[in-house]
What we know:
By secondary structure, the chain is of the alpha+beta class. It has six domains: 2-130, Rossmann fold; 140-187 and 472-581, Topoisomerase I, domain 2 (Orthogonal Bundle); 191-255 and 393-414 and 421-467, Topoisomerase I, domain 3 (Distorted Sandwich), CATH 2.70.20.10; 262-390, Topoisomerase I, domain 4 (Orthogonal Bundle); 716-776, no CATH class; 854-885. It is 37% helix and 22% strand. It has 27 helices and 32 strands. The strands form nine sheets. Strands 7-8-14-13-10-15 form a six-stranded antiparallel β-barrel. The protein has a four-stranded parallel sheet with strand order 2-1-5-6, with helices on both faces. Helix 3 packs across helix 5 (132-159), helix 8 (262-273) crosses helix 12 and helix 15 crosses helix 18 (580-590). The longest helix is centred in the first third of the chain and has 28 residues, at 132-159. The radius of gyration is 39 Å and the shape is globular.
Amino acid sequence: MNVVVVESPAKAKTINKYLGSGYKVLASFGHVRDLPAKDGSVLPDSDFEMVWEVDSSSAKHMKDIADAMKNSDGLILATDPDREGEAISWHVLDLLKKKKLINGKPVKRVVFNAITKKAVLDAMAEPRDIDVALVDAYLARRALDYLVGFNLSPVLWRKLPGARSAGRVQSVALRLVCDRESEIERFVSEEYWNISALLNTPRHESFEARLVSADGKRLQPRSVATGEEAQRLKTLLEGASYVVDSVEAKPVKRNPSPPFTTSTLQQAASSKLGFSASRTMQIAQKLYEGVDIGGETAGLITYMRTDGVQMAPEAIDAARHAIGQQFGSRYLPEKPRFYSTKAKNAQEAHEAIRPTDFNRTPDSVRKFLDADQIRLYELIWKRGIASQMASAEIERTTVEITADNNGQKAGLRAVGSVIRFDGFIAAYTDQREEGEPAEDGDDEGRLPQINAREKLAKEKINASQHFTEPPPRYSEASLIKKMEELGIGRPSTYAATLATLRDRDYVTIDKRKLTPQPKGRLVTAFLESFFTKYVEYDFTADLEEKLDRISAGELNWKQVLRDFWQDFFAQIEDTKELRVTNVLDSLNESLAPLVFPIREDGGDPRICQVCGTGKLSLKLGKYGAFVGCSNYPECNYTRQLSSEGADAEGAAALNEPKALGADPNTGEELTLRTGRFGPYVQRGDGKEAKRASLPKGWKPEDIDYEKAMALISLPRDIGKHPETGKMISSGIGRYGPFLLHDGSYANLESVEDVFSIGLNRAVTLIAEKANKGPGGRTRATPAALKELGQHPDGGAITVRDGRYGPYVNWGKVNATLPKGSEPGAITLEEALALIAAKGGQPSKTKAKSKAKTTSSGDEASAKKKTTKAKPAKASATKSTKTKKS
C-alpha cells in the first residue's frame, strides 16, 4: 500500500476513488507547520536558520500520516501544483524523516492541474522528485515576510501607537490605496461643455452628431471650458445648414479575451458578481476539489492559483470540438488561439483557469451547484470557450458633417457600429463582457442610412455642462489589477493581502470601494518618510522577480536574504534614534490635507480656533493619533482624525463648542463638542462638568437641545420595582444600553429604549435576565429523579441528576451525593444531613419536633452527633459551660 498526501479532505475523498485499494489518501489540511509568531523564528545571525512549529491540529493530521507510513510501501506527495504546494510536500517529508519513518521507502512527487480521473492517473504515471528550487523560493519568501513583519511592526508600535502591523506586500498595497486618496484630495475640478446636434435625414430618421471642430481648429476633449464659449458655439449651430461630407464604413474585428488567471477571475467576479477576492477563491476551491455530479465526484475547473493564460493542447482540442457542436462550424476559427500574458513577472507555469470538461455546460450542472457556485462556474466556462471562438465582425461607420452659418463653419461627427457576425460574443448569451461592443439590436451603437452630400435638417442643439471628476477609489478588482501590473505579490497572496488591510482597520470597503482609514494613512506616511525604499513599487516588484529567479534555480536564496537584511537592518537601527517629535513633524507635512483641512473662513487651518494662539499638531496617545493644541493644558482642544476630512457642519462645527441651550435645573450651558474619542455633550465648564458621549448611530449634526438634555440626564429613573421597591433605571454604558436594578444589569435592544421604555416592560426584562445564567442562557433545572419528602423548614427535598452528577436539592441548596451513592437509594435522613452540611441546617424548633418522630436508631445517631459537637462548643468559652452545669 502507498500513502498519498494531498491538501484537503475533499480532494482526498475524490482521489481515493480514482486510485483504488492499493492507495491510502490522507489530507494534510494545508500547511503542517509554520514559523511561530514570535521573535527568533528566523535567525539572520545563524545564516537565516528557520525554527518551525507544528500546532495541535496539524500534529493530529501528521500523526495520521505517520501511522499510515509505518505499514506503507512508499510515499506519494500530491499537494497543489504551485510553490505553496511544493513547500507543503517538503514539510511533510521533512517531518517524516525526523520520525525515521521513510527508511529507504520510495518517495515521489506528483502534480495534477485538474482533479479528474484521467488527470490524476496521468500524473501518477509521471512522478518526479520534490523541486528544491521551488522550495528555496518558498523559504526565501517566508523569511522575507517574517523579517519585515517582525522587525518593522515593533518600530510602528514604538513610534506610532495605535498602528497594528506592517508587511512586505501589505504595506505597498496600502500605499496604492493611500496614494489614490491623496490624488483625490489634491484634485481640482474643471468645467467643460459638450455640444451636440440632433439631426434628421431626408428619410426622417434622427441621429446625434458631436461637435469636433470650429473656427478652423479641431476641438480637443474638454476644450470648451466656459458657458460663454459654449453659448457662442451653440448659437453658431442653431443658425447653420448641414451637409454630409463623407460616410465611411470600416470592418473591424474584435478578438476574445484569454481564459482567466487568478487575478482576472477575481476582477471579473468582483465587477460582475459582486464577490470579494476571498469569496471568489473559496468558491473556486470547491469547484476545483470536486462536486458530486449525479453520484460522481468530479473537479469542474482546473487549479485556480495561476498567472498563466494558456490552455493545454488537449483542452484546446476539447474546446474547439464543443464549439463546433454547440455553436456551429462558422464559430470555429481555422487555427487554435494561443495567448501570452501581459502581467509583469508572470510565471506561466500552469494552465489558465478553465472547465475540466467543456461539454459540461452550465445548464447541465446547474442542479448540482448552489447559486454562487453556478454563477462562478458559468463565468469561467463562458470565458474559457469564448477564448477559442471566432472573432466578432463589426462594421464601424463614421459620418463627417459640415455646419455652415453664413461662412462660419463647424465640423460634426457621428459614429455608429453594427455587429455583422457575433462570433465569440455568442458565448455571452445573458451577460456581455465589460468593454465588449453592443450586440446587434442595441439602438445606441447604430446609425440610420446616411448618404454622402445629402442635406440634413436640424432638430435640436444641446450644450451640456460637465465637470472633471477625480480618479475613482480602488475597488478590490482594480487594486488587484494594479498590483498585477506592477508585479507586486502573487496570485495566491491577493485575497490574503486585502483581508489583512481590512482586518487591521487600515481600509474600509463601502459599496465595493476601498477607503483608507486615518490609521492606514498614518502608517503609509510613516513608512514613506522613514522606510522609503521598502514601500516603493519597483523595489517590491524587483524582489518578486528575484524570488522567481530563485524558483528557476538562477539565484541562491540565502544570498538574496543576506543582501536584503544588510540594508534593512541598518534602516531599523537608524529609527532607534528617531524622536517622536521628528515623526510628528514629518506626518504633519505629508498628511496636511487630512490633518488640517481647509477652513471655510479662509484662516490658517493650523491655528487653534478655540484659543486663537495655539498651533494644531498631530499628537500620539494610547489609542492612536489625534489633533491637539500646542497650548495644552491651558487649551484642551482635541479632535479625532477623520477619513472624511472636516465638512461644514461636521468637524468644522465641532472644532468650537456649539451652544445648545441652558439646563433648566442648574442653569449651566449645554454644548456639543468633539474630543479624542469622538463627539460628546457637555454641561457646564471645568473639571466638574458633566459629559455624555454620543451613542453609536447618532450624528453630531442631528443633536439638538432635547437630545442633549436626554443624554446629559442619564441615568433615567423608570420607576420602583413592584416586588423589591427598589428603583429601576436605564442608561448607556461601555457595552451599550442597559437597565439597572438592585445591582443587576439587563441589556436593552436599542438606544431609543433607554429614553422610552416603561415600568412594565422593564420589570419583564429584569425577570427574563434573572432566569438566565452566564452567557445569556436560560437556566434549566434538571427534572427530579425522586421526591424524598418535606424539609423541617418547609419545601420539598428531591434528588436530581446535574451536569456534575446526582445531587440533593432543597430550595437554593444543592448537595452533591457522595461518590458511589445510588440516587434511588438515598433516604430523607441522609438527604437532611447532606443539606445541613452544605449550610441548609433546619431551625431548632422544627428540628426538635422532627426528632420526636424519629426512630431509636435515629435518636442514637442524633445523640452521637450532639456529643461530638458539645466539646467544641464548650471549649469556646468556659463561662458558658459553668452556667449550663
